[in-house]
Specification:
Order of helices and strands: HEEEEHEHEEEHHEHEHEHEEE
Number of helices: 8
Strand content: 15-25%
Number of domains: 2
Structural class: alpha+beta
Radius of gyration: 19 Å
CATH architecture of the largest domain: Alpha-Beta Complex
CATH class of the largest domain: Alpha Beta
Shape: globular
Bound molecules: magnesium ion
Number of strands: 14
Helix content: 25-40%
Length: 342
Amino acid sequence: MTDKKVDKVKVIHGAGGKAMDELIGGHVLSTFTNKSAGMIGLDNLDDGATIEGHDGKTLVLTTDSHVVSPLFFPGGDIGRLAISGTVNDLAVMGADPVAMTSSIIVEEGLEMDVLDRIFQSMEETCKEAGVPIITGDTKVMEKGNIDKIAINTAGVGVVNQPVTDSGFSPGDKIIVTGTIGDHGVALIQFREGLSFKTKLKSDTAPLNHLLKLAREAGKITGMKDPTRGGLAAALNEMADKSNLGLTIYEAEVPVKEAVTGVSDLIGISPFNVANEGKAIIMATADTAEDVVGALSEEPLGEDAKIIGEVTEERPGKVILETEVGGRRFLDAPLGDPVPRIC
Ligand code: MG
């Protein structure tokens, strides 16, 4: 795990795959000693951490920085992403988000109009999620010292019983709330100026209302948002932490035709790129169909499907049953193939 021989930070260290695991294991977890204020702390590397003992409620805390390039892209922008990313990390912990902070670093020379559009988008997304920004900070750096803008948001939520990314059992079903790969593939297509006649858009959206419906519809035993490194990275993390096997039926995984087309053309897998408006949900076998039914009634969950199940076979591994009936490991990528994606 330790990566002390590498003497410089590389882009791949932030790309959500094995290289980032090395950075976090070898440099973060090895340095910080006070790792927990509740049941789930830094050591657990979950989507958020818990703080116990506030009037019998558990608080969930999370933080996320956003450096996406370009700032505006089909289906979203850095502002919508900065709110959605943090709201979703709270929502997949089973929490109801209560409030957020926003800390912004701007490059000297950024047009005020661009800043206003980003702020407006943040406000609209906050309204959509029903979560206010209640404190923040803004710093400006000299031209050339930062690329336009970086936004950090933190969020706090409340939860009765946190949902982790490893609490599921053999027999539980694996659900995705919609199509896979939309954000990463839309971004690379737009960034590269590829002139496909697709209407491909990022899926960036806050999922707290949708995931609350899922929690009410069935017994949820695990959740995670498949951001950097995509479905493959998130499932491998869940398999590794739970020490259970995850079997995925390739034919059941919803992928838009345009996403498959562009991915094939540029030689990436939709399974390895970021989603910013999707969640992986584990539910008990007897309630999984009810969860999918509840999700399907909502626009953000209309393509929800059961894509696999938790097994005792191959602990710690993700097995992909391919469309032609083969079986292979679905490995975590070294890093998301698309840099500066969120
Ligand atoms: Mg997450």
